[in-house]
Design goal:
Elements lengths: L9 H9 L3 H55 L5 H15 L2 E6 L3 E3 L14 H8 L4 E7 L4 E12 L2 E11 L1 H51 L14 H49 L5 H31 L9 E4 H11 L1 H6 L3 E5 L6 E4 L1 H17 L6 E9 L2 E8 L20 H4 L9 H11 L3 E7 L3 E9 L4
Parallel strand pairs: 7-9
Antiparallel strand pairs: 1-2, 1-5, 3-4, 4-5, 6-8, 9-10, 10-12, 11-12
């Protein structure tokens, strides 16, 4: 048997709702919320207005009943004749369209024909009991075949503390039936107008929101297609505007990254082409017997140097790539940084002597022990010393100083070289960045040393800074975390 449960259609409805555009979703949700709010408000106003009218009508009838009661008490006291009392009641009934029924169990009962509502006088036993106890009872009943409403008020008629009867006043709510429907129509027309206005406003707002989102969507597709120059126009400062700002920032960074990639490929190609061209030239000359036998060893040594340079470049490229990988890990252990610097100076001694450089060392005591990777820290200071030796003229000076300050171990490597131009300082950490021509460098490098150094220092949780002054020298300061044991 086919399942006719209406709730089985809910998931399909939600799926269809999910496929709607943002504008349609906003308009639909706004319509639903506005309809519920306006319908609730209209029903509440309608109910309050009806209750207010009944309250006013009830107060008026109670006032009339009090007046009738006083007149009847005057009759009981002999102050008014029966004929005059009936005339007063009859005039009141005709003038105000009100039926007044006065019941007296012993000697008086009065009903007038013109405005008789026999059903309205049928109080329930509990209601009559309340009137007999001296309370005022109000009720609304539907009277006649057409079921029109009649409001009735019952008041006790007492004299000298004795219940003489009941005054029952009835008033058909003709004015209520005729006056309130136009008001209700006005309320609902106002609600519908407000809903229409809210719909128009929602459509306008949703388009203001969705238009930049569509632009972002198109721009994202262009960006994915390779158009890294694509940007979105910013027309607001709200969340959508902030999203556009973030997109433009991302596009700018991607463009910079792409430019860096191109520069990197160009630099790698250039760095590889140079030694390979030299090797090919020398080897081709030897194969073609274009090089005299007594010169072959010299050219083979040059070819070996180019091979070593090529090997060093490839190794540093691999190093640089591995350090930028999420899987890069340090082999941590207890490291005496003073001893690391001593080993580096011993390793670099031939280059230092060849440049005729003086070395000054100032180590802190006791020997500082830190948690680090011995080989990687040695690589850091080999790069810094090699850099200092390469850019310091013969007869210059290298200084090394270690100190512990504020929970950090600081190592300063200072040379008296030719310095670094201020505009070059922010760029020295970039891959393949060289200032050879500006600095008159005497030995070729790969341009990767300082980039690798910075990555290794940061991998140890430290930082590296540089200060330089043209023709006076440069100081690299490595700061590493240090905890006393």
């Amino acid at each position: 048997m086919r399942n006719t449960n209406r709730w089985t259609d809910v998931p399909s409805f939600l799926k269809k709702l999910a496929t709607l555009s943002l504008t349609k979703k906003l308009v639909l949700s706004s319509l639903v919320i506005t309809f519920i709010a306006l319908a609730g408000a209209s029903l509440l106003v309608t109910r309050l207005l009806g209750n207010y009218y009944l309250h006013v009508k009830e107060a008026s009838l109670v006032q009339e009943g009090e007046a009738a009661r006083q007149q009847f008490i005057g009759y009981l006291r002999g102050q008014t004749s029966l004929a005059k009392l009936q005339e007063l009641f009859k005039d009141k009934e005709h003038l105000q369209n009100i039926e007044i029924v006065i019941n007296n169990q012993d000697h008086f009962e009065k009903k007038l024909d013109p405005f008789r509502h026999p059903e309205s006088n049928e109080y329930t036993p509990s209601e009559l009991a309340r009137v007999y106890r001296g309370q005022i009872v109000t009720k609304v009943a539907m009277i006649g075949p057409n079921q029109y409403p009649v409001i009735s008020v019952g008041l006790p008629l007492t004299l000298n503390g004795h219940l003489e009867g009941v005054i029952s006043i009835h008033s058909p709510l003709y004015d209520f039936m005729h006056a309130l429907p136009p008001i209700y129509r006005l309320i609902w027309l106002t609600a519908l107008s407000a809903m229409l206005g809210a719909t128009v406003l929602t459509v306008w707002v949703s388009r203001k929101i969705s238009r930049p989102l569509r632009d972002l969507h198109e721009a994202a597709l262009d960006l994915a297609g390779g158009n890294l120059e694509r940007r979105v126009k910013l027309s607001s400062r709200d969340e959508v505007g902030q999203l556009g700002t973030a997109f433009n920032y991302m596009a700018s960074k991607l463009n910079d990254l792409e430019q860096t990639r191109r520069d990197f490929l160009a630099s790698v190609s250039h760095e590889l082409r140079s030694p390979l061209t030299s090797l090919r030239g020398f080897l081709q000359a030897i194969v073609d017997d274009a090089v005299p036998i007594d010169k072959r060893e010299h050219y083979l040594n040059i070819a070996l140097a180019e091979t070593n340079r090529l090997t060093r470049l490839v190794n540093e490229l691999l190093d640089c790539a591995s350090m930028q990988s999420p899987d890069f890990r340090l082999t941590l252990g207890e490291v005496n940084l003073n001893e690391v610097i001593r080993r580096v100076l011993a390793k670099m001694e031939p280059h230092i002597v060849a440049q005729e450089l003086d070395v000054e060392v100032s180590f802190c005591q006791p020997e500082p022990l830190i948690s680090g990777d011995w080989d990687r820290l040695q690589q850091v200071f080999v790069n810094l010393v090699d850099n200092a030796v390469s850019f310091t003229p013969p007869g210059g000076k290298l200084s090394f100083r270690t100190e512990i300050k504020a929970g950090f171990l600081r190592v300063a490597v200072t040379d008296t070289g030719i310095g670094i131009p201020p505009d070059e300082l922010p760029k020295i950490w970039e891959r393949f960045h060289k200032v050879d021509k500006a600095r008159g460098r005497t030995r070729c490098g790969t341009g990767l040393g300082l980039c690798i150094t910075k990555h290794l220092v940061e991998a140890h949780g430290g930082k590296i800074e540089v200060e330089s002054e043209i023709d006076k020298g440069t100081t690299f300061t490595v700061t590493l975390p240090f905890s006393r044991r």
